[in-house]
Amino acid sequence: MPRQLSLVTGEGASPPSAPESSRRGGGSEGKPPHPIKTVLIVEDNAFNLKLLDDLLQAAGYTTFKATDGERALELALEFRPDAILLDIGLPDMSGVDVAKAIRNNEHLRTIPVIAVTAYATPEDEAIIRHAGCDEYVAKPISAPELLRLVRRHANFKLVGHEGERGGS
Predict the structure, then answer these.
(1) Strand, helix or coil at 23?
(2) Please, are residues 52 and 26 in contact by the beta-carbon 8 Å criterion?
(3) Of the residues 1, 52, 61, 86, which has the fewest C-beta atoms closer than 10 A?
């Protein structure tokens, strides 16, 4: 049975500030091909942010971290990550609005977005996918499944315009 990660789904205190970029060396199975791939993690819960960051770094990814939607959009524009993990319940703006802003920005629209959320109804999934998320993962997540999705999207960055994106 795949290992499940129990991400916190409730609202908590403000997360402590974490470094915005992390990179860990060392050999590990499942490491992305060179050059190192980057993932922007957008998560307002400090525990979940650390868990996702540790998981991705252990798999060889460089990460950038944001705890709100506005900062996520700033970092996405600055670093153009290979993939974005996006929590939907953010403090300043909805992750749905962040996904829409990404899809409406000519410099960001081809970046794959993976929603990682506690919003788990079929209606929620439809809204999230309609906003432009390429994948949808409900919490608690399966670590192997999340890494498989990140690897697939980060290693094969989308090209072209929105009309050429698969699944949208």
Answers:
(1) coil
(2) no
(3) 1
Q: Pull the structure tokens for residue 164.
A: 């050429």
CA torsion sign for 155, 68, 131, 97 is: negative
DSSP string, 111-157: S-EEEEES--SHHHHHHHHHTT-SEEEESSEEHHHHHHHHHHHHHS-
Which of 22, 95, 94 has its CA nearest to residue 84?
95
The C-alpha atoms of residue 158 and residue 113 are separated, in whole angstroms, by 10
Q: How far is CA 54 from the centre of its chain?
A: 13
Q: How far apart are CA 100 and CA 65, in angstroms?
A: 19
Q: Which two tokens stand for residue 48?
A: 């979940």
Cα four-point dihedral sign 77, 78, 82, 88: negative
Residue of 154, 163, 98 lying closest to 128 (CA atoms): 98
pLDDT digits (tens), the chain, 168 positions: 444 555 555 444 333 344 445 444 444 445 544 567 999 999 999 999 999 999 999 999 999 999 999 999 999 999 999 999 999 999 999 999 999 999 999 999 999 999 999 988 999 999 999 999 999 999 998 999 999 999 999 876 544 434 444 443
